[in-house]
Amino acid sequence: MAIRGTPLERVAVKQLLARRQRRRNRLVLVCAVLTAVGVGLALTALPLFILIYGGMLPTLVAFLADEQPGRYLFRAVGFMNLAGIIPYIEPTLRAGNHAMLSGALAQTTTWVVIYVIAGSGFFFYFVMPWFAGLILELMIRARISRHAAERAALGQEWELDS
Amino acid sequence: MANTAELMDESPGLGADLDGPASSGRAVLDDIFEIDYSQRLQSLDSAQAKAYVAVDTERPGAKLFALVAGLDVPTRAGVAQALTKTEGSGYLNVLAAGPALAPDGEGRRMAFVLDRPSGGRLRHPVNAGAAVSERVVNGIILPGILEGLEKLHGQGIAHRAVRPGNIFYSSTEHDRVVLGECVSAPPGFDQPVAYEPLSRSLAARAGRGEGTAACDMYALGVTLVALLKGAVPTDDIILARTALRYQSGSMAVIMAGFEPSMRMKELLSGLLQDDSRQRWGIDDVYDWLAGRRTRSAPIRGLRDGVRPFEFRGARHSSPAGIAHAFAEAPDAARHTLRERGLVDWLWRSCGDKDLADRVKTLTHLDAKDPATKSSLSDEDLALVCLALDPNGPLRYRGLSIMPDGVGPVLAIAMMNERADDLKVISQMIERGLIIEAVQRSALFSRDDPYVSTCRSHQAYLKFPGRDMGLERCVYELNPGAPCLSDMIRDYSVTTLHDLGQALNRYAGGGDAPSGRPRDRHVIAFAADLMSPGQLQAVRLGAVGVSQGAEDCMADLAFFACIQRTEKTGVMRGMARWVRSRMEPALDSFHSSTRRRRVAIALNHAVSSGNLTDMLKVMRNETERRSDAQEFNAARSRFIYLTNENARLQSLLGDYSALATFKGRKAAAMLAFVVFVVVGVLTVTGGF
């Protein structure tokens, strides 16, 4: 830990400020790109714009909320979100018109399906640690008992004690 | 590897000596001589040994007898062995010497086979006899004794038992005499006090010392007086007149009331000189017999002072006499030595300034500290006595020993377990009193090897655990002495071969003995007899073994060495005994599996009675190296597992952070997989 007033502290403060600046810049960049793409998409293919920008809202929330290293919430929600909207985008792109997509957008079930699938990303993110804990405990216990058995055998053979 | 069959072939069957048939009443010595215990020869008994008829199986007609010693007095086994190698005349030839089956069949005793004199003993050993004429003395007795002494002295051996009761007629006509035996007891041990020169007569019986030819010449003189006069003063009378001996000379006391012829008086004057340098030798006596010797040094005591020195009401003329008086009354001596009286007397009356200065130093008369000045230890007193009487015995804490007589005194104290004597002798050696006595005595030259022997004894006592202390001294000072270990003492063991056999027998039958096979006596006895190669083999046997296993491995190496080099044959009892104490050495193997395997191999070697195989099993370097290497690896692994388990246990207590991290990562990966699957299915038309 840097001591206040020392050159080291000044360096640490500088680094922190630079990191914040980079993050802010990245956010601005993402917003700019999304705005530009969104404007372009809204002008050329409004249904597609509505599906993507409306359907990917959970991902945007996750992006903004997740500040943890690795950004696993953003990744989990993002991938699940994409998995939810791909089945609606693919026929549109294949057919070359937005007729079918416009119909789907009008249906509530489409949005429910997209958001439920995106929600499962949140589900995974919050449930998997518990599940991983369970597996981890089992693995640790198994390793401990394996080590204890080997240690006991060594102790008996070589008369070693703690 | 010497297998069991080889060992059995090499076995010489010493067991016959150790276990011989007692009921037969016979013992065999040197495979040639048979001692017949059913036929006693009481007339030939020595003071410390009983006589029996002996037969030479190769010369059945030879007239022999055997002397069988007891267990409480050491013999002159070294002298006896030397005498067996030569055949002399004028003394009873020793034909064989060594341990033989005891008369009662229990154990063995030192026995000596000698020529049997035909004419019986010259004089009863105890009772005085009738006077003998000078003609018989000059014509028969003196030439016979001189012949014997000449032969013995020629071999560097002092007889030390010349007295009328130990002289025999070698013919039935009683026209020749020979000297009796001198091997069944320590030198001078059985001599009445009168027969010992003044200085040696004041020592303990066993401590009169090996002596010199001059001692025999003095004893010859007293013998002649005893024969001519019929008797000499008894021990009590002689001891009571010690002061007179110092003042007027021994001759005055020995010959009191006896007036021989002038010619005989001349001979006795020469032989009874208290100063050994003035005493006649054999050549002088031969000259006298031939009528050539006409001059004799005047007899006088060891008087040195012009005026006498008074101590406890008695007047003393010589420092040696004062030394004796001081040793008789040490408390009074201390009181006297606090004053300058003796120092002044030595200086002014004796004119010996060096001696006066030495006594002054020893008695701390110049010390400024009153406490130092008034304290005079036993050691100081002994040194004062030694300074006053350098050629006399070492007098310390009531024990008087000639410097060359330490061995027998020590042996007797050991044999009879006299703890007080052992303590005093130990102090004499350890505190350098013996060395001081040897260096001051005119008996020893400055570079006499005995001085270095005494120094090594002093070193033995400084490290009694390593060098076996007094026990080692006993065997070095008594060549040929049997091992005094309680386990085998009854077998009079004198060789390493017999040592192995006797201990094997001791261990045989029933459970193995609980004690250590090599006690202090066995170690000291063997150290004195073993060759450098054997000692090295024993040392190597215990090199590099783990702590706690040194003793048992050294024991194993020792007995394996004896079995191999002395060809003792199969030693099952010994093997069982050594095996019963091998646990520390077995425990030095870290692996329990290997330990069991080695124990099985060891037991196999034990059943064959082969100690060399046992040693090979226990000193298997490949096994030991593997054991050490594997143990190091196992210990490292054990430590790793211990630490790893501790880490996992702590992780088990707090793994939520890791689980959260791993779970979130897994959630992201799962989402990615779902995305890929859905994407692929969508593109391929799976939906």
Poorly predicted segments of chain B: 1-17, 19-23
C-alpha end-to-end distance of chain A: 38 Å
Could you tell me how far the N terminus lies from the C terminus of chain B, measured between alpha carbons in angstroms?
A: 87 Å
Percent strand of chain B: 5-15%
| Oligomeric state of this protein | heterodimer
Q: Please give the radius of gyration of chain A in angstroms.
A: 26 Å
Q: Which term fits the overall shape of chain B? A: elongated
Any idea what the CATH superfamily of the largest domain in chain B is called? Answer: Transferase(Phosphotransferase) domain 1
Number of helices of chain B: 33
- Biggest β-sheet of chain A: count, sense, barrel? none
Structural class of chain A: mainly alpha
**Looking at the structure, what is the overall shape of chain A?**
flat
| Chain-averaged pLDDT of chain B | 89
- For the record, what CATH class of the largest domain in chain B applies? Mainly Alpha
Number of alpha- plus pi-helical segments of chain A? 6
In angstroms, what is the radius of gyration of chain B? 37 Å
**Into which percent range does the helicity of residues of chain B fall?**
40-55%
